[in-house]
Amino acid sequence: MKLTVKIQSIEKINSQALIIGLFEKTKTTRSESKVEGLDQSISDMVSVDGFKAGLGEVTRVLRPMGMSARELILVGLGPQEKFDEDAFTRAARAALAATRAESVSVLLSDWCLENKTEEWSVLQLAIAAGTAFEPLTEENRKLLEKRHVNIIVRQKGIALTQTAEIGQAIASAINRAKVWGNLPANICTPSYLADEAKKLASVKGVTVKIHDEKAARKIGMNAFLAVAQGSREAPRFIELHYSGAGKNESPVCLVGKAITLDAGGLCLKPSAHITEMKFDMAGGAAVLAVFEAIAKEKWPINLVALIPACENLPDGAAYKPSDVIKTLSGKTVEITNTDAEGRLILADALTYASRFEPQAIIDVATLTGAVQVALGSDISGLFVNDPVLCDMVETAADVAHDPVWALPFGGRRFKELIKSNVADCVNTGPRGVGGSCVAATFLSQFVDDETPWAHLDVAATAYKSGKDAHSTGRPVALLMMLLHQMASVAE
Ligand code: BES
Ligand code: MN
Ligand code: ZN
Questions:
Q1: Total-model pTM
Q2: Which of 274, 336, 339 to mutate to test the pocket of ligand 1 (most atoms within 8 A of CB)?
Q3: The pLDDT of residue 51
């Protein structure tokens, strides 16, 4: 996608399509530059089509009068008094997905939210423009790649152009994560992800290390290997470094769960649930996509990305309920449920992360079904041990329009639930009892209290289930904004 930000009058727009937003009832634009023919085209359309300008409602006028654009796309913004951030992105996506034109101008000056800066709107529009089609089919991905989106603003400035560039980088990272996430488990294997990671070795400042089973054993990643041992698919522990800042600056460490198929292991899942567990590598895909985008965009930050990748299958060699495993940290875990595998591979990855003395660790995982019970399907679960980092993540989530909600973990009451008689802890608490908080409590044992750490449980947000199941690319936008904020602070 090519993106430009301009001040332009409507007559001069020569894109194939022009998008204009209209509020319900008034059905008028806020356009200061009244154009002959525009109002007529709109009122014709409104009467012919019964267009009510409800939120996300779209109608097209072909060959509008007085304009060089071939298509005029009217998108409903809903009632003006209810127009908010959600409405903004919904309308933007609906309009941009309603046309297959290769060049599209958006009259943004009409839709800016009163309580948000024009920058916020440009960022959101750039992200929406790059990700408008969902599910992301190969055909739509190609159209997005070719498309030129021109954003028409009120005030031009270098800041808006830079914001648009960030939005564009975010959108393409989201699409990368979506493509990986949507791949079936026989293609997107641990080795496949490792090969995708290896491709980044040619990017300036990047080094790639792929640890195979033997290497992981030598390091002592026994929890990771226990999960992998029931599968014929070779496990890969992916380690990526990017140095974009000074040598003395400690890195931010990203950790992403990449179970390329989670059948549950010997505690086998019901078959209806297994198909969608190809998405159980979404955390790893998000981390890889964000790492790639930041390294290619040369952001001034040091990054480490760790992606433990394997399958969780039942087999004669699979790890078993009652097994006691010695993790990389030295702590032992009694396996009470082989389907709680994500926390095991993350335990070793979090311990490994501490070796880089990171300024912060952020892990991303489709960790618990319970997070959907707690927060629904629009909000990711946030667990964070540091108030400053909490604030940064919440701010980034708000700017990126990628919502999170902080939940409790740790402390005596949650720790009580994972006590074991034969090991330092068990890997699952009692059924139906604060599942997401218990999982985060388990993870917290592998991070020291002094390191700012955030855990994002994206089990309910990283993909949409059902007949049309597809990856959403979340929380790529949030991570990108967070790291952008961290990179700017350090500068
Ligand atoms: N990958 C699943 C979590 C999940 C469930 C993601 C549903 C998306 C949708 C995870 O490995 C898992 O199986 N968790 C168990 C934990 C339980 C055994 C304590 C769960 O949530 O049921
Ligand atoms: Mn599982
Ligand atoms: Zn899983």
A1: 0.95
A2: 339
A3: 85
